[in-house]
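Researcher: Going back to the complex we discussed earlier. I've cleaned up the inputs and rechecked each line, so this should be the final set. Can you rerun the prediction on the complete assembly and write out the structure?
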Amino acid sequence: MTEMVYGTVRVKAGDPVLPRWWRTVDKWTVACVLLLFGLGLLLGLAASVPLATRNGFPPFHYVERQAVFGLVGMVAMFFCSLLTPDQVRRFGVLGFLFAFVALAFLPVFGSDFGKGAVRWYSLGFASVQPSEFVKPAYVILCAWLMAASQEINGPPGKTASFAVTVVVVGFLAMEPDFGQSALVIFAWGVMYFVAGAPTLILVGVAGLVSGGGVIAYDYSTHFAKRIDSFMSADLNPRTQVGYAINAIQEGGFWGVGVGQGQVKWQLPDAHTDFIIAVAAEEYGTLMVLFVLSLYTTIVVRSLTRLMRERDPFTRIAGTGLACIFGVQALVNVSVAVRLMPAKGMTLPFISYGGSSIIAAGITMGMLLALTRTRPQGDLGQVFKRGR
Amino acid sequence: MIRTPLRPLARILQARAAGENPDAIERENIRLRHEEMRDRSRDQAEGRLLMLGLFFFCAFSAVGARMGLIAVAQPSEPQLASNTGPTIPTDRADIVDRDGRILATNLATYSLYAQPQDMIDPIHVAKALVKIFPDLDQARLVKDFTGDRTFVWIKRTLSPEEMQEVHDIGDPGLLFGPREMRLYPNGHLAAHILGGATFGREGVDSAEIVGVAGIEKQYDGWLRDPANAGRPLRLTIDLRAQAAMREVLDAGMHLMNAKGAAAVLMEAKTGRIVAMTSLPDFDPNNRPVYNPKVKPGDSPLFNRAVQGLYELGSVFKIFDVGEALNLGLVTPKTMIDTKPFRIGGFLIHDFHNYGSKLSVADVIRESSNIGAARIAMMFGGDKQKPFLQSLGLLDPAPVELTAAAGVQPIYPKKWTDVSTTTIAYGHGISVSPLMLATGYASLVNGGMRVYPTLIETAHPRIGPRVVSEKTSAELRSLLRYVVTSGTAEYGRVKGYDVGGKTGTADKPDPQGGYYHDKVISTFASIFPASDPKYVLVTMLDEPTDTSGPVPRRTAGYTAVPVGGEIIRRVAPLLGLRPTIEPADQNAITLARN
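Model: Rerun complete. Updated structure for the full complex:
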């Protein structure tokens, strides 16, 4: 009767949110991220004790903070991964505006915490590093511009994205933060590459990057010092890299034992840039190899899933996010094993740092949103491959 | 404005004709084209994403592999990278004498430097350092330690005691760097031959040792060459002979009130220099700095035996007579006119009147200038100059010392008749004692030219022939004659059969002419005279023997006794057996039964 009077109950279009999320999200990546977060806390127990001791806090002060920030990051990741690609695009572009304004006002309101580079806003109880948030938002913006340029009668999005890149790199270099600048340029290159860049232009961009590096080397002592210390044939054991290499050797495959490491007492950046050296010393190289395999899994799985994607924006944005995530990890570990000059880049989800872990959560959340399984238009295209 | 073409034109025109909205048709067309483009770009992107995935996989694998390699590598003691870049090679070969006794070696010591930024109490450190090293300037140290400098050298080398005292200051800003230093354990001995060394490029861990003079400089490259694998450089010097020579020469120099002295002991048949001394000398461990106020010829750094060019006087007469004998112009018994004569307005005369005629042997024994000049006039300058050249008296000595290379003997550019006659008795030509020894050795060893050398080699350079065997033998007996009954009677050494020739030359006055109270007195000797093994040239600079009622300066009273004493000391050391003279029969008393 009721039905006859009021009509049938409206059936909601589509599935309930959570089951659909669980069905379509890349569970491997989620598992890897959660493992990384857990390992980050575990390593923080080892690596951040000296910092807490130095600053007069209880030994696990920074682990607690990291756990709080990490939970915020995980929540951010979860909510970002619920978004649709269109929502990702909208929030990403809006987020870019906020983050960029924050970046632009760094020279006025920022603080350098005595480290020689103005990269942080001091909020009293915590500090925020805008460049961490600029990166994922920047990727979304550029992906949008590049995807739009592929539309018939679309805007000149590739040129626009290049202009955005130049401006962002300019602000990052002013801090100075050449590591993040390089990361942004790399992200742009990767996205342009996947968006169908002509090979000739790719070669030209590679030339520009190396030219910029040479100019930075000539005009910035901060930059030149790091490059020089890398190029010199002799490894000075009193540099951070020297300590890191020594720690890796000390650790061997199985490590010297939990809490037995020494390198964390010698390195000022043991809890951030060189946390992998602490891991290698206390838990051994096997632990490091496991961490590396987690990063590899995340990046390679994301990229493979994007291979099936037909939507240009999703594909380009996903590629950009996966690559900045992967490259950041790659650079951080390469520095510790002296394959790259010291850059000051954090290890996502593992290094201590509120901005870093929340931004990594957002990045990973958006990546998960973009790599969710969804119907890919014409089924014939999918079957065509098997022909 | 450029109009966007209407596509597909045919269908749109039809629709227009039918009165339908053509936009839907165009949108449909664009949608289809997008679909097609997306498929195409997906195909392209698929490949590129695969490439990216592979790149990341490879990169992470490479980093992991590198990590594994570092982990399995044997941990090595970290070496502090030195400030100067590549490591400084510090191995420097030893220098030894002919029997392998050490003349120069390296000693591991420590240098002292400061890193003021690590210093706790710079003022106290400066005070304490000055107490240990009185030569340091406290004000300067305080300035260095409190200024902007991050690195200050304080001492190049430390003794262990000094190091302990500095250690006891206990300041973390004072640091020690290992440092090899060159050590000459024999001090002054052979100072001019060895020369000395200093530090070149300096790093915290090591410093380069660079030879600054003598053998150290001449063989700097060889001594530093790692290819020699620590083999020492072997010299022809005999340390014992060198020590004996220096001791006697030093005593003689003081006894004869000379301001300088030099002696060269050379193997007659090979040119190997067994001992060579120049006094005053110096300690190569603490080589004096060049002092521009002292005349270069009087500096202790000056090697009189090699660098000093002197008019040596009558010792040259043997070259004159040697040439005449070799050319067959005279025999030792030929009588020579010794009446004073003029040549080119220049009077040739002797110290004493030796009568109107002397035999060639007596010209040498009495050292007659007139006789020597007359003999020289027999063959003339055209033959004299090449003969002296063949004995090495007109060219720099080819000995292995950097100081020797530029020492060009002084002789007149125009070799006139006057030059010929004065050079016959050793005036108007300046050579070094080493060149004189070379000339004597070449004449008396049987007539083969020798070349002075300090480096021990299996086959020293010898030849060509300069005089015949016969001439050489005649010259030996002439030289023996001078010692047995001539001007060099104080040079007799029992059992060693010494021969020799004296020379007393007035020193040229830089104002012009010659001094009358300053001489160079020389004794060029050979022993044993019958078959000379060694040539010894002893030279005293401005000697005066004041033991008698009148000051005596002639070589017979100054250089000869010193040279004789050197031979007496050195000959047994060199393994020469004294010839046993037959014992006096009367000395034996037969015991009666």
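Model: Worth noting: The first strand of chain A starts at residue 121 and ends at 122.
Researcher: Good, that matches what I expected from the previous run.
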